[in-house]
Amino acid sequence: MQKITTSLWFDGQAEEAMNHYVSIFKNSKVLSVTRWPQGHAQEGKVLVASFELDGVQFQALNGGPQYKFTEAMSLSIDCKTQAEVDHFWSKLTEGGGEPGRCSWLKDRFGVSWQVVPEQLPRLLGDADRAKAGRVMSAMMQMGKIDIAKIEEAAKAERNLQRWRRPHPPFGHLLPVNGEKEKARLTPPCRGPDNP
Predict the structure, then answer these.
(1) Which of 17, 22, 27, 44 is deepest in the core (most CB within 10 A)?
(2) Could you give the angle at which helices 129-139 and 147-164 cross, rounded to 10 degrees?
(3) Which residue has the higher pLDDT, 116 or 157?
(4) How far is Cα 111 from Cα 60, in angstroms, rounded to an integer?
(5) Is residue 94 one of the residues assigned to a domain?
């Protein structure tokens, strides 16, 4: 039995939102729907509904216009592949959703989501803080996360150091320290004054 259930407050959109979410995630289903009783002004409309997204239970409530969703609360999706990232990003932004920055988006109902490839927290938490910093810088330029690009950023310095190794005839490709060193290591240019 799930101990804690997230309850989402909607203004008349609970059933539509629930059905939309269930259509996006695998292993998902509607569990129960309670409607306003006969004689009520909202007769027949959904009062509260329970549903599962990939086995995790949620509740949707039509509570009225008093409260709105904000980015202070978001639902985070862990993704194994770029195909998963692309799928959730596309489905959750369709129909009026708003792409955000750094994996964040807001769906058409106002609910905020984070679509996070599993590689991202691992690279951001790398013991090599320079590598983590490069990944952070790359991420800050993105909306939807591109796994290939953050992995490329993680490897960038390693590739640069490999390129800088002295190896004839490219011995000038060495780390540069100061103007004097720059002048000494500048590749020679052949011409009338420098045969």
Answers:
(1) 17
(2) 130
(3) 116
(4) 12
(5) yes
